[in-house]
Amino acid sequence: MPLNKKQSKPHRIALLGILTAIILIQNFVPFLGNIPIPPLNPTIIHITVIVATLTMSTTDGIIIGTIWGLTRMLRAYTMPATPLDLWLWVNPMISLVPRMFIGLFTGWSYNLVHKIAPKKEKVALVTSSVIGSFTNTILVLFFIYLFFGEPYAQAIDVDVSNLGTALLVIVGTNGVAEAIAAGIIAPLVTVPLRKITYRK
Questions:
Q1: What global pTM score does this model have?
Q2: What does the H/E/C string look like for 71-132?
Q3: Average pLDDT for residues 110-114, to the nearest whole number?
Q4: CA within 20 to 30 Å of 63's CA: 53, 104, 105, 195, which one?
C-alpha cells in the first residue's frame, strides 16, 4: 500500500492529535520514551514518528517528527536532565532536524521498497522502520560532532581525536538497539492501525 493514501480531514486531524498526545506523554513521563536495558538506554519515541509516517503519510510523519523536536527543545529549556541538555538539545539542528528527517526517510524508503517489490509489504515496513530509526541516530550524532565536537568529547571524557570512534560505538549499541525495536514494534502497530484507519 503506497503512502499518502487520502483520508478525511477530520479523521486525519484526530489521528494527528492522538499521535501528538503520545509524543508529549513519551517525552514528559519517565520510562515511557525509553527502554532501560543496561548499559543501553534506547529511545522508542522515534517509533511513534515512524508509525505516523507508515499509517498516514510522509508529510504527517514530518509533522509528528517536528512536534517531537520542538517538545525536546522545550524540555531541555524547562526540565534539563543534565548540563548537556542546555547546549545540545536547545540547538534545532540537533533536536529538531533529525526528527523531521525520520518521517522523510521512512516515507522515501517505504515507497522505494514497495515500488521494487510491491508484494513484499512486511519487508517494506521493516526496512523503512529500520532506516527511519538509523536516520535519527546518525543525524543527531553527526550534528553533535559538527557543532559541539570538542566540548562533547570533554563531557564524555574522550579525546577529541577519538570522538568519531566513540560516536560510532553509540551507533553500534544504542543505534542498533533502537533500530531493532523500530523494525519489530512499528510494523506490529502499523498493520492493525491501518485497518482501523482505512476500513470502509
A1: 0.91
A2: HHHHHHHHCCCCCCHHHHCCCHHHHCHHHHHHHHHHHHHHHHHHHHCCCCHHHHHHHHHHHH
A3: 95
A4: 195
